[in-house]
C-alpha cells in the first residue's frame, strides 16, 4: 500500500516533528513534508511553539505555488477548528494540495476525524495510518491527556547497584555523576510539570526548575529565551510548606496542593507566581488520581521527582506510566534507603510488569527507561 517515497517522506516528517519537543507543549509535536509530482521536497516544517504556526503552515509557505497539485505528509491529522491559529485542513485545501498522507488521526475532540472529512469533502485524496506507531511515540503526553484525561507520568529515580537512594543517615549527594544530573535537567525541560512531596522540600530544599547552564549539548539547540520552565508541583497535604523554601523564591509557576485550606496569612505572603489548590484526600494524603485529573486540564506530561513514599504511591495506585532509573556504580549497603515504598506483595503475579524500552550509558551511570504495566 505504501510506496518507498511515502515511507521516506513520513520518516522525515517524524524527524522534523521531534525538533519541537521542548517548545510546543501543551500542543503536540507535528511535522509536515510537501513533495511535488516528481517526488521532490518543495516544502517542510514542524510545529515550533504553542500559539505559533503549525507544521503545515511552515511547509506550504516554503512550497509557495508548488503546493498546488502536491502531496503532503503530516504526522497528525490537520486541525479543523479555529484556535490561536486557523484550521490547517482549510489551508491545505486553499493551497491546492491533491493528496494528504496522515500518520494518525487526532484524538482531540475538537478534531477527531473532522480534519480528514474536511479534506475529503474538498476532493482531496486522504490516506492515513502510515507509521502510526512511530507518530504516537512523538506525543505520549498529548495522547494521554486527550484519551485518558490525565498527563503521562514518568518517575525519575536514582539508585545504587543495590537499589538504594541514600545512606541510612539520608546522605545522597551525589549518587550519580554530573552527566546524569545534566540529563535530568533535559528530562525536566521535556515535561509540563515536575511533582515532588513536602518531605523532599523539607529535607533537601530543592529548586525543581530547569537550570539552563546545565543543559549541556541542548544549549546548542535551544536558546535560553525558548526554554519553557515546568510547573513545579508540591504535594503538601497538611500545609507544612515553609515560606522561605527556595522554590518559592525563584520565578516560574508553583502549585501547592493540599487536602485542607492554607491559612489566609500564608496565602497572602506568597509570591504572585505561587498558587494553592485544595484537592480530595485519601487517608490524609492528596488523592493522586484527582491530582492528575486536575493537571490534565493543561499538562501533557509530568515528571515525579520524589522520595520512596510518593514515588511508590504512584506505582501502587497504577498511575505511573514510565520509570527512568539512573543507576550508579556504587553500593550503599543494606541499611541504605530503599528506592520505592510498595505494598508487601504476596505473589509475583501482583507486581507491576516492567518493559525495558532503552538502556544507555550517561557518563559513568546507566540510564534505564522502562514502561510500567499493571
UniProtKB/TrEMBL annotation:
Cofactor(s) needed for function: Zn(2+)
Recorded metabolic or biological pathway in which this protein acts: Cofactor biosynthesis; riboflavin biosynthesis; 5-amino-6-(D-ribitylamino)uracil from GTP: step 2/4; Cofactor biosynthesis; riboflavin biosynthesis; 5-amino-6-(D-ribitylamino)uracil from GTP: step 3/4
CMP/dCMP-type deaminase domain span: 4-127
Catalysed transformations (reactions): 5-amino-6-(5-phospho-D-ribitylamino)uracil + NADP(+) = 5-amino-6-(5-phospho-D-ribosylamino)uracil + NADPH + H(+); 2,5-diamino-6-hydroxy-4-(5-phosphoribosylamino)-pyrimidine + H2O + H(+) = 5-amino-6-(5-phospho-D-ribosylamino)uracil + NH4(+)
SUPFAM superfamilies in the record: Cytidine deaminase-like, Dihydrofolate reductase-like
Matching PROSITE patterns: CYT_DCMP_DEAMINASES_2
One GO process term, biological-process aspect: riboflavin biosynthetic process
Top-level division of the source organism's lineage: Bacteria
Residues engaged in binding Zn(2+): 54, 79, 88
Residues bound to NADP(+): 158, 174, 200, 204, 237, 307-313
Pfam families tied to this protein: dCMP_cyt_deam_1 (PF00383), RibD_C (PF01872)
UniProt-listed InterPro entries: CMP_dCMP_dom (IPR002125), Cytidine_deaminase-like (IPR016193), DHFR-like_dom_sf (IPR024072), Eubact_RibD (IPR004794), RibD_C (IPR011549), RibDG_C (IPR002734), Riboflavin_Biosynth_HTPR (IPR050765)
Annotated substrate binding sites: 172, 188, 211, 305
Bound cofactor: record note: Binds 1 zinc ion.
Active site, renumbered: 56
One GO MF term: diaminohydroxyphosphoribosylaminopyrimidine deaminase activity
Keyword vocabulary terms for this entry: Hydrolase, Metal-binding, Multifunctional enzyme, NADP, Oxidoreductase, Riboflavin biosynthesis, Zinc
EC number: 3.5.4.26, 1.1.1.193
Family, similarity comment: In the C-terminal section; belongs to the HTP reductase family. In the N-terminal section; belongs to the cytidine and deoxycytidylate deaminase family.
Function according to Swiss-Prot or TrEMBL: Converts 2,5-diamino-6-(ribosylamino)-4(3h)-pyrimidinone 5'-phosphate into 5-amino-6-(ribosylamino)-2,4(1h,3h)-pyrimidinedione 5'-phosphate.
Name this protein carries in UniProt: Riboflavin biosynthesis protein RibD
Organism of origin: Shewanella fodinae
Amino acid at each position: 500500500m505504501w510506496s518507498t517515497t511515502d515511507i521516506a517522506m513520513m520518516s522525515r516528517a517524524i524527524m522534523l516533528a521531534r525538533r519541537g519537543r521542548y517548545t510546543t507543549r501543551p500542543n503536540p509535536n507535528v511535522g509536515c513534508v510537501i513533495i511535488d509530482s516528481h517526488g521532490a521536497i518543495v516544502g517542510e516544517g514542524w510545529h515550533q511553539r504553542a500559539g505559533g504556526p503549525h507544521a503545515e503552515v511552515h511547509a506550504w509557505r516554503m512550497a509557495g505555488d508548488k503546493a498546488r497539485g502536491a502531496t503532503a505528509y503530516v504526522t497528525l491529522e490537520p486541525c479543523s477548528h479555529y484556535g490561536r491559529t486557523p484550521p490547517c485542513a482549510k489551508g491545505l485545501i486553499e493551497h491546492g494540495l491533491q493528496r494528504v498522507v496522515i500518520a494518525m488521526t487526532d484524538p482531540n475532540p475538537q478534531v477527531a476525524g473532522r480534519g480528514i472529512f474536511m479534506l475529503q469533502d474538498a476532493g482531496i485524496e486522504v490516506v492515513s495510518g502510515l507509521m502510526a506507531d512511530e507518530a504516537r511515540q512523538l506525543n505520549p503526553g498529548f495522547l494521554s491527556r486527550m484519551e485518558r484525561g490525565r498527563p503521562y507520568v514518568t518517575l525519575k529515580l536514582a539508585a545504587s547497584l543495590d537499589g538504594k537512594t541514600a545512606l541510612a543517615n539520608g546522605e545522597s549527594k551525589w549518587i550519580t555523576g554530573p552527566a546524569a544530573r545534566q540529563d535530568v535537567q533535559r528530562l525536566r525541560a521535556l515535561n509540563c510539570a515536575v511533582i515532588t512531596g513536602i518531605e523532599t522540600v523539607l529535607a533537601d530544599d530543592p529548586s525543581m526548575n530547569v537550570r539552563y547552564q546545565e543543559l549541556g549539548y541542548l544549549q546548542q539547540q535551544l536558546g535560553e529565551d525558548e526554554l519553557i520552565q515546568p510547573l513545579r508541583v508540591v504535594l503538601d497535604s497538611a500545609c507544612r510548606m515553609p515560606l522561605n523554601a527556595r522554590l518559592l523564591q525563584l520565578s516560574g509557576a508553583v502549585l501547592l496542593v493540599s487536602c485542607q485550606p492554607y491559612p489566609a496569612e500564608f496565602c497572602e505572603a506568597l509570591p504572585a507566581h505561587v498558587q494553592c489548590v485544595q484537592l480530595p484526600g485519601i487517608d490524609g494524603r492528596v488523592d493522586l488520581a484527582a491530582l492528575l485529573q486536575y493537571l490534565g486540564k493543561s499538562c501533557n506530561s509530568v515528571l515525579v521527582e520524589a522520595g520512596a513514599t510518593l514515588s511508590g504511591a504512584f506505582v501502587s495506585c497504577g498511575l505511573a506510566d514510565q520509570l527512568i532509573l539512573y543507576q550508579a556504580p556504587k553500593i550503599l549497603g543494606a541499611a541504605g534507603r530503599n528506592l520505592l515504598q510498595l505494598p508487601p506483595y504476596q505473589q509475583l503475579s501482583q507486581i507491576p510488569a516492567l518493559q525495558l524500552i532503552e538502556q544507555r550509558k550517561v557518563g559513568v551511570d546507566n540510564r534505564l527507561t522502562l514502561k510500567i504495566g499493571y
